[in-house]
Amino acid sequence: MLFDRLQISETEVGSILIIGGAGGVGSIAIQLLKAKTNLTVIATASREETKSWVESLGADHVIDHSKDLNAQIETLGIAKPKYVFSTNHTETYIEQIVSLIAPQGKLGLIDDPQTFDIMPFKTKSISIHWELMFTRSMYETDDIEKQGDLVTIP
Fold first, then answer.
1. Which residues on neighbouring strands pair with residue 40, listed in sequence order?
2. 1 pLDDT band (50/70/90 cuts)?
3. What is the 3-state secondary structure (H, E, C) of the chain?
4. Is the torsion defined by CA of 26, 28, 30, 33 positive or negative?
5. First and final CA of the chain: distance in angstroms?
6. Which of 12, 57, 85, 135 has a 20 to 30 A CA-CA distance from 5?
7. Residue 80: what are its φ and ψ, rounded to 5°?
8. Which has the closest alpha carbon to 133: 152, 118, 146?
9. Residue 153 has what pLDDT?
10. Domain ranges of the chain
């Protein structure tokens, strides 16, 4: 998702919001982003132990997903994130994501919202990217060899 679908480069600056930062996918994403990019990582967590967890993984900022995300990001004093990676409950956060993501930003998600109205993203020209782990193998895509690529962390 991060480097393939969202096309985040190692030299890029700015920020990314990871919704579900304390979960399995979010935890790996934080570590990859901190090891491979210059992005400021904002991760969501709500309990003290999960906040400590994402901080220990390298998140630059931790915000509470049970509160207004946009208001919390505004208090950080940084620009709106260009990227949002939503690992769970995306439909709960759609309106907030539309508000907090930078114009021409990119939204990546891996869950399966029951409803997903993309029209609110149009005015900001947001691109939306889904990822299913087995798409390449299920459809034998031309780039199937990427399925086995490993990310090396220095």
1. 15
2. very high
3. CCCCCCCCCCCCCCEEEEECCCCHHHHHHHHHHHHHCCCEEEEECCCHHHHHHHHHHCCCEEECCCCCHHHHHHHHCCCCCCEEEECCCHHHHHHHHHHHCCCCCEEEECCCCCCCCCHHHHHHCCEEEECCCCHHHHHCCCCHHHHHCCCCCC
4. negative
5. 20
6. 57
7. -55, 140
8. 146
9. 52
10. 15-148
The whole-number pLDDT of residue 134 equals 84
Sign of the four-CA dihedral 131, 115, 61, 57: negative
CB contact at 8 A, 146 and 136: yes
Token pair for 90: 């995306």
pLDDT score of 19? 98
Residue with token string 């090396």? 152
Q: In this structure, which CATH number among 3.40.30.10, 3.30.460.10, 3.40.980.10, 3.40.50.720 belongs to the domain 15-148? A: 3.40.50.720
Cα-flanking dihedrals φ and ψ of residue 129, to 5°? Answer: -130, 125
Closest CA to 79 of 56, 57, 104: 104
Q: Whats the size of the chain, residue-wise? A: 154
